[in-house]
Specification:
The complex is a heterodimer of chains A (542) and B (315). Chain A contains 22 helices and 20 strands. Chain A has 542 residues and is an alpha/beta fold. Chain B has 315 residues and is mainly alpha-helical. Classes of the chains: A alpha/beta (542), B mainly alpha (315). Chain B: It is found in: Cell membrane.
Chain lengths: 542, 315
Amino acid sequence: MAEGASKATTDQVLKITDLRIESIHGLVLVDNVSLELKRGEVLGLIGESGAGKSTIGLGAMAYSRGGCRITGGKVEIDGVSIRDLSAEGRREMRGRRIAYIAQSAAASFNPAHKIIDQVIEMPVKHGIMSKTEAKAWALELFRALDLPKPEIFGERYPHQVSGGQLQRAMTAMAMSCRPDIMVFDEPTTALDVTTQIEVLALIKKLIHEYNTAALYITHDLAVVAQVSDRIMVLRHGKMVELGDTKQILGAPRTDYARALVSERKEADHLSQLPKVDTAHVLEVTNAVGVYETFVAVNNVSIHVAKSETVAVVGESGSGKSSLARLILGLLPRRSGSVKFNGKELPPALKERSKDDLRRIQFIYQQPDVALNPRQTIAEIIGRPVQLYFGRSPAEVKRRVAELLVEVGLPEDYAGRLSTALSGGQKQRVSIARALAAEPDLIICDEPTSALDQLVADGVLKLLKKLQDELGVAYLFITHDLGIVRRIAHRTAVMLKGEIVAQGPTAQIFNPPFHPYTERLISSVPEMRTEWLDEVLAKRRVG
Amino acid sequence: MARTIAIRVVLGLLTLLGVSILIFAATEILPGDVATAVLGQGATPDTVRVFREELGLDRPAYIRYLEWLGGAVQGDFGVALTNKRDIVKTMSPKLFNTLFLAGYAALIAVPLAVGLGILAAIKEGKWIDRTANIVSLAAISMPEFFLGYLFIFFFAVQNRWFPSLATVYSSMPLDKRIYVVAMPAVCLTLLVTAHMLRMTRSSVLAIMSQPYIEMAFLKGLSRARVIFVHALPNAAGPIITVVALNLAYLIVGVVVIESVFVYPGIGQFMVDGVSKRDLPVVQACGLVFAAAFVILNTVADVLSILVNPRLRKPR
């Protein structure tokens, strides 16, 4: 490939015409999507889950996952129609001309082999480099990607390096054959914001340096705004809108694109929330929680008042969930106190009374795993009603119907199995189950992070409505600062098991910042195309 | 990692110790003792008492256990009650025969089962997968003695291809031995293949649905490379475990096959010991069987640790 060629070259490297992908049951996953990609150009594919983004990305490699097949359309790479090639011919294209970068590097690296062996495998097996050449090139890529000690980095196994490093190593792996096209499938979604910004910057640099064309798949408009030249909005496998990045962000033409954009923008604004009572429901003082020898929660003090939402933010491993487990009595408390309604709670779950247990409920991140797939919705929600209040079957049934209406689900869902529901509906069932116990406090552990933007928005609105009506308090664990701005009265920022900043949300999000809070806030992508460059420039100066 | 392995080995030894206690206790609680067994029902109480003292059976059980264990550790299982011969000397050639048969069967069964398992996983749902599954399941579902007699009927009686009795003696040349033992070895192969085949198939299949396998395909690697370089090393753990269990079964579970083919192995020896109430012989055989089981499983555990980079190379 022509290194250093200017971005203005017009030669087309990828052309997809009327691509159609169906599941083996005849469900249409991708419905006649066409796109073109020039050398050095980045096209963002955006949409919610089920929009067919990844399916198109893989379709560009003439690959379809088990259970789906490509049923129509043309995929041309540099004028060669790869669907017309033999299996062997397609195999030669993959990796060499068009390379794939998956969402989870941890899952996409083979745990049994060293990183370097996996990175150089492609050029060596495709016969374009000798082992030594491939190693030298990998080393150059490791350097370009800012990996620590690039000379020995590859000698490690995937489990021995961090998630952000592994994601960069996967980018190096994709670049190993100097492909014409790269397919990025949510490459930064699994990373923390502060890591995401580094990886994003490096991906951008690499694409420009080697003039590679790229399909960039993501659900986050702000992320795609930083890297792509054009954006295609997808929904239910169909193209909704295609345009320049600035146009899509600034003046979307379709209703759906407008909804996506305004939803994402709303996250940047601070909500005005009504004042709350001062009576503390929960009061944690100097709590220390330890897993064997690892101090997960270190000297944490936090309180939650009636009908108040307190957000706990931090990156993965910061101890947010451990704090929740400590309050619930699942993580042994070494010292400090946890008071509930003014009464000291025993450290361990089994020493707590049934009433203590009832008053604190929990909503999980993954509704799929938190609901028993063999129970009907009525059984799931009815169980706490029956357990805590000992109601008769008829009363339980009535209460379940009431709760379903309250969380915005049709009453006749009671007889269904949770597996028949969508992710957002499942999370609503989880909320109804928590409400069934009539708690004073609900601890929400990333309840919307597994959901699509618009669905998550609905769930957040529901939580807010319930708080207004019932006066329930929330301890809301999240890594998403946009959510915090919208729903939290007060915010606590956690880092390495400690709370480094705590106070009213408006105060936390305005200067003077704690340095870590500032770093966290400034790492959240904004809906401006210049954002990434600005932040990086500022950090370099700072 | 060295620590993990050391713990495995120590646990193996402790298991063996526990089993030795169980074996001793089990033979202890059998009704009557060696003295009555040897002297028969006609013996007067006096003769029984004298004989017991002579054998040391009047001493407390734990002392006799420790003596027995002490001897066993040094390779001395005492003498057989019935013929007063040294047990180890009598047992050794029979143990060798059993190991020979087990090794013979393993050499056929392990490559066959693992190979077919991989093939079945690659061709999931195709005719070769189904055939391998059905045939191996049919073979394991048949009682082993029935399978043994079927073999004798077809291959020794109807067609005189193989001898019906697998009689071996110590000076027998290897080629002749291989020929004579072929039928029981193939019989055993059929019995252990199904388990290993199915385990190999399901662990390879589980790995084939991992994202890193999809990634390997997207890297444009050949199917063979994806399977042998990317899938197999990750499927090795469960395969090693099931192979070890089946190897142990080949040593311990051959009693019936040995009886059917009148093969002079350790299983036969133990059955003789039981029928003659020769308790020291039974104890010795029990301990040898237990040792085979524990050693093979410990080796499997250690190998599983060694093939797993997460355990081999901690962060």
